[in-house]
């Protein structure tokens, strides 16, 4: 039975379902909701240089992350802590789970199939392949 569960949050219905699943399945576990700010997704990744307004973008991204985490935090059932990190989502999730001593990851899947999955990849799939702790993917 997991004691410390990491739940990545991206604002999707699937990540909300992952929170509900973890609360229902392991009500006594310590839950931490994680949002990863991905500068590469905004065109600010390595090799692209730092655009003007990057600090403003980052402050807006942090504010958005706080709102996402606040909305995703379970109410009146269990307590959950939150954290925000910056980096590539799959890699950051795996690193946080490993370095912070989590013993389980529960995350949503967007359920992409076919060409969109090949072109866009899958954060959940990358986490499952790279994680040193068990990962439950909720659809």
TrEMBL record:
- Residue span of the signal peptide, if any? none
Q: From which domain of life does this come?
A: Archaea
**UniProt protein name:** Nucleotide-binding universal stress protein, UspA family
Q: Please give the InterPro entries that the UniProt record associates with this protein.
A: Rossmann-like_a/b/a_fold, Universal_stress_UspA, UspA
Q: Where is the UspA domain?
A: 1-139
Instruction: Give the record's family classification.
Output: Belongs to the universal stress protein A family.
């Amino acid at each position: 039975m997991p004691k410390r569960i990491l739940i990545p949050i991206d604002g999707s219905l699937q990540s909300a379902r992952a929170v509900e699943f973890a609360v229902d399945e392991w009500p006594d576990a310590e839950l931490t909701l994680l949002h990863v700010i991905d500068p590469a997704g905004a065109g600010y990744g390595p090799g692209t240089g730092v655009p003007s307004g990057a600090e403003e973008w980052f402050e807006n991204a942090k504010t958005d992350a706080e709102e996402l985490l606040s909305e995703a935090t379970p109410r009146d059932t269990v307590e959950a802590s939150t954290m925000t990190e910056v980096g590539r989502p799959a890699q950051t999730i795996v690193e946080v789970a490993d370095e912070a001593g989590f013993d389980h990851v529960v995350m949503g899947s967007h359920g992409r199939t076919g060409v969109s999955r090949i072109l866009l990849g899958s954060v959940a799939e990358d986490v499952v392949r790279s994680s040193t702790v068990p990962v439950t993917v909720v659809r």
